[in-house]
Amino acid sequence: MQLELSAQDAAFRDEMRTFFTTEFPQDIRDAVLQGRHLTHDQIVSSQRVLNAAGLAVPHWPEEWGGKGWSDLQRHLWHEEMQRAGVPTPLAFNASMIGPVLAQFGSQEQKERFLPKTANLDIWWSQGFSEPDAGSDLASLRTAAVRDGDDWIVNGQKTWTTLGQYGDWIFTLVRTDPDAKQQAGISMLLIDMSLDGVEVRPIEMIDGGHEVNEVWFSDVRVPGDLMVGELNSGWTIAKFLLGNERVGVAPVGATKRALATLKASAADLLDDPLTRARVAELENELLALELTALRVVAHSAGGEPHPASSVLKLQGTELQQAVSELALDLAGPGALASGADDDSPVPGWARLSAPTYLNLRKASIYGGSNEIQRQIIARTILGL
Amino acid sequence: MDFTYDDEQKALRDAVRGLANKAYAEFENRRKATADAPGFDEAQWVRLAEMGVLGLPFSEDDGGVGAGPVEIGLVCQELGRVLAPEPFLASVVHAGGLVSAAGSPEQRADLLGRLAAGEIVLAAADTSPGGRWSAAAEGVTAAQDGDNWTVTGVRDPVPNGARADHIVVSASLPDGGTGLFVIDGESVSRTDYAVFDGSRAACVQLSGTAAVPLGEPGRDLTATIATISDITRIMGANQALGVMQAQVAATNDYLRTRKQFGVTLNTFQALTFRAADMYVSLELTHSLVDWATMVIAAGTREDIADAADRVGLQVARASRHIGQEAIQLHGGIAMTAEYSVGVGTAHLDVLGQWLGGAQHHLTRLADRVADHDEVEALT
Asked: Does the predicted model carry a pTM greater than 0.90?
């Protein structure tokens, strides 16, 4: 047992920290650190800066831009980005469809999509959830029916995050209605500019437009856009969701949010109860970060450490708890959520309520926290 | 950065686990050992000495092994798993730690040599009635007459105070500050009593009791006392981790096997979700315990104090969560003295009250919250 990073890993961390804090666009970092929503153009240019430096998709196979880093190096890269306020690469591209195509895609699909996916020349959306298929994803009903070499897709997806910016959508569709639920599902790549694809915004409790419904009406999709074998979609989805859980506990970003709140609301730290709440959260974040490091240190080359399910559960609860503290500290000023920058109420206080409301999503998505408890109870504890 | 044991550490863990299981895997043996004073099995104390465990923290010159905090921590974990009542934490880590840090070479060789050999039990007496985890002596004063020193006051509770052959007492010095003194256990009035987890403590009355200064006479040792207390807290956290690991395992076994309404209890999601939350608490605590243990080797006095507060807070929260849920999910059986789970919860509370609970550590952390931007996990 040893606390210090090896000289090599320490140098790696310094290299990351230096790049993110000195070479990355400051205006985008400021927006992230102040908790503001990023624009489409900021997200795209951010990913292109990272990609140009070889830092957008380091976890992909080296052939497609990966770096062959250790799990610990990937962890340090991810943490340093969050610490510096650098937006992490768009998850739909970098963490979801990219690794899926690299693993399951045809050579033609890899060549056609992976470079543009890494550079965010294509913005991907995720077409998984449906109105009647949430945690029970395998009950999805959006159907694809064979017509010559093509597939005709009909149905509805929902909770499609940032689907208003999507160029393409990776979609789970039912291709065999007679098979057992999981066995009749395939993954199709669908161009969102095709006739019959309609994106409808969903207005959320934070007043924002972050998610959408995506409707498919007789959309004709060429057959070469199926990923992997026919009816192998469930295997691919499990692979993708397994990756999703790895980065879903934003320890570094939550630590930064709490540090920023402490600095913004410094006057309120005179209250001993406030100090106690901050101290308690800092301690819980330390325990979470150390658990993430333990998982990383034990995962190398083998099975994931059983404690990895803890990360999503506790990571999202702490993310929510920090936003709740910000709302409490904002006091009546939180009501100024719709005021503009001329408001005498500081920005952090104006953003506190929308952020708090928005983050209620964190314990629902990525496998709800009840699903995580189910995984812990069944697969770790054998209950 | 590495959170794994090396081969030698694994061998030590397996050896201590074997010895601990042989004695106390059968919980009834622990009940017997704690039924009367001194509240532990003298023969097991000697067996621990023979394995080298009692001399683990001390230098080879002092008759010890010179092992590091990771080794001492894993011994505490293993003893915690079976609720071993032998006073490794109180006598070796705490009292022995004070002698090791403050004693003269002769004092260390004598006291620690005999402690490592299992010939004596030491106790540390630093708490007076109403005291609350203060490194500066309260309630006991030292007086000097030429080369002779005496101490006067009351120390209570003193863990293992009635059994101890020698007691290390903290006392206010005539010229200010706090000194440490060794007294002969036979020379004082001691009232032995049972603690609620089966261990023993005593009220020790000192009235002009002859006392030998530990190390250089008259020197202020407040900072040393604070650091040894902090190390004891971190080792207590290791012991609590072992207790909680055993409680979580026992609870899961029980849910898998206990039948009600014709089915095993793990059929009920209301119960398995609570077991999952216990596991989350346990793993988060495990991470902080490992971290704090490593800080002892790598950090300054201030780093160790901070780590003791951080692990102390986490362990206190987890002890209540896991200790309470382990009893609730078992039901009535865990309320009985003949079953390990409920006694484990009592032991967790002994550790918390003795070494400092959540409110103590949180108060200290809250005082420092504006001193830093983020809390750094890695150095």
From this structure: yes
